[in-house]
Every structure is written in C-alpha cells, then in structure tokens.
Design goal:
The chain is of the alpha+beta class. It has one domain (3-71). It is 24% helix and 38% strand. The protein has 2 helices and 5 strands. It has helices at 13-21, 62-71, and strands at 3-7, 25-32, 35-43, 48-51, 56-59. Strands 1-2-3-4-5 form a 5-stranded mixed sheet. Helix 1 (13-21) links the parallel strand 1 and strand 2. The termini are far apart.
Amino acid sequence: MSTLTVEAGELTASEILDALESGQRVVVRVEMLGGVHEVTLRHDGTIYYCDTPTTLHKHQSVDEMRTCIEKMGYSRDE
C-alpha cells in the first residue's frame, strides 16, 4: 500500500476518497492540540478508517467518510 502525504486543505474530499479507493493510504498533516499532527486515512475495501492522535474512527460508507473529512477540515472545498 502506497502512502500519499498532504497538508490539510491541499486536496478536495473527492481527491482524498479517490486515493483511498485506489488503495492508497492518505496521511494528512493537520494543526490540532497545539501542534501539527498526522492523521492517517485508509480503506480496507469495506471500512474506512481515520486514525487520529487521540482515537481511531471507523466509517461504514463513503458518505460517512466524506462527512468526517469535510467536518474535520482535512480537505478544501470542492
């Protein structure tokens, strides 16, 4: 599995989801908790994962993952 590393807001949610669905792991550098942290997004073919410094979120659908990506500020507007 290849890894794509980006800054928060560098890609749209659709671009991030396309990368995940093609088998890439996406690492997003984001400012949170008083510093810059890396959030790892991945898809195992069934479940989408959002691994933050504080917790692991699981999403059952592409729509749930898109909502998470947009709500958390990982993407720029489409």
